[in-house]
Each structure stands twice: as structure tokens, then as C-alpha cells.
Amino acid sequence: MPQLLLLALAGLAAQLVDGSLGMAYGVTSSTLLLAIGTNPAAASATVHLAEIGTTLASGVSHWRFGNVDWKVVLRVGVPGAIGAFVGAQFLSRLSTEAGAPAMSLILLGLGVYLLVRFTLFGLRTDRRHLPLRKRFLAPLGLVAGFVDASGGGGWGPIGTPALLASGRLEPRKVIGSIDTSEFLVALAASVGFLVAIGSQGVNLTWALALLLGGLVAAPIAAWLVRHVPPRILGSAVGGVIVLTNTRTLVRSDWVGWKGETQEGVVLGVLAVVWVAAIAWSVRAYRADQAAARAETAGAGADEKVVATAV
What we know:
- This protein has about 300 residues and is mainly alpha-helical.
- It is about 80% helix and about 0% strand.
- It has helices at about 1-20, 25-35, 40-65, 70-90, 95-120, 135-150, 155-165, 170-195, 205-225, 230-250, 260-310.
- The longest helix has about 50 residues, at about 260-310.
- It is globular.
């Protein structure tokens, strides 16, 4: 029972982050399942099974709050589903010994990307008037879907920053559209794992616990997307993923540092970097807010001058 409660809380927290940031449900949940010793393919299959429900609930919630662009959902989601099915087949053919560190390496890369992307870079707003093209969305969906299924997460960490970086869609619609299209990816990945490994190793009880936590969080996250600073949240989540998967890697047969001094040193350094990244993000966010207030005040003052002159 304590384990199921922990999984439900993890599902709730992961969905809160995913629904408000547009990423990290799969990465966060898969990292947790790997940490408690789950087979990589089974971990990804369990998470994607839970995501069928959470992404459906999240998509409906985002749609009700007006956060979804349905053209983007279809143009990125269908190729994403194809990539996810192939990725599920790929991961299912890796041995457990090779799969665990390989999956942690993918998750670590995604965590580093999250940490760097949201700590150092802001969001572009100068290209909102330009349309998103199929020749950009289709390859993006294909790659993100493959990484998502084979790495236990990646649809959001790849898709959301790519769309945000394009500057052609407002952030809330990027997040809502990526979350909604993930339903197609989760469904295709689940079918892929079912074909490849059947129900072997897939814990339906764990999937249900993750699902229940995610269902509670989905409508809250869709509302929070208008209020939570993505920069700070991205740095925080990225750091957790980097630390957890680095720990898995250094303890694996690839490195073999379990319980040794090197492990503590590496994790300690990463923890310091993580705290510094969050502090940097908070400072940058406050600076952006102050600049925005100053710009608004300046515009108001100019309007008063014009009104007085008239």
C-alpha cells in the first residue's frame, strides 16, 4: 500500500508538471520505476498505459481552457504515434542489462536538455504571426515519438521546447497541443509494447496508481499553465531527472561506482549545479517581470503625454 500511494503521488506530481510545462510526465514516472528496479521495457509500457488516461484527461482539460490548436495536434501527433510504435519495438528487443543504463542515459540527456533550456533561455515571442509547417511538425513528431517510447519519456521534452523555440505559437497553446497529441503517442506505444512483450512485466496496479494521481492533477495543471513560471519549473524538474538518472548510471555495470566516493562527489557537484540553476532561473524570471512592468509603465506614461497634448 505505501508503494501504491507513492506511485499515485508521483503520478499527481508528474501530471502537475506535465500539464503546466508540457513535458516530464513520462520522464519523471519512468525514472521512478527504474529506481525501484523495474525492467526498462516494462517501465515504459506501464507509464504509457497510464498515460492513455492521463493524456486524455489533460487534453480535455486544456481544450476546455482554450489551450489547444487542433491542426498542430494532428500534424505532430500522427507521426508521433508512428515513431512511438517503432520505439516500443526497439526497446522491447534490448536486454534488461543493456536496457536499464541505456534508458537512463536517454533520460539523463533529456534532463540535461530541460535544465539548460529553461535555465539559460527565455521564450521567443517575435514569430507568433508565422504558421507552423508540416515539414517541421512531421519529423519532429516522428523523432519525439520514437524517443518517448524507447526512453520512457521524451515527447514533451523534445516537442514542447521545439515549438516554443519556433516562436510561432503562444506558450499555453504549445503546452495544450503537445499534451493533447500525446494521447495518440501513448496509445501507439502501448500497442507496440503489447505486440512486442504482451503483458509480461507490466504492472496494471502500478499503472492504475499513476493514472489516478494524474487524473486528479490534470484539470489543476491545465489551469496552472496560465500562472506557473515555466522557466523555474523546468529548471527544477530537469535537475531531479539529471540527479536520479546519473545515480542509476554510476551504479550500473557500465560504471560500477555504487557506494564509492566517486558517486557521492559526482552527485554532490550535480546537486550544487541544480540549486544554482534554480536560483538563476528565479533571478531571470524576476528580471523579466520587472522589465515587463517597466515597459507597461512606460507605455502608459506615453499615452498620458499624448492625451495631454491632444
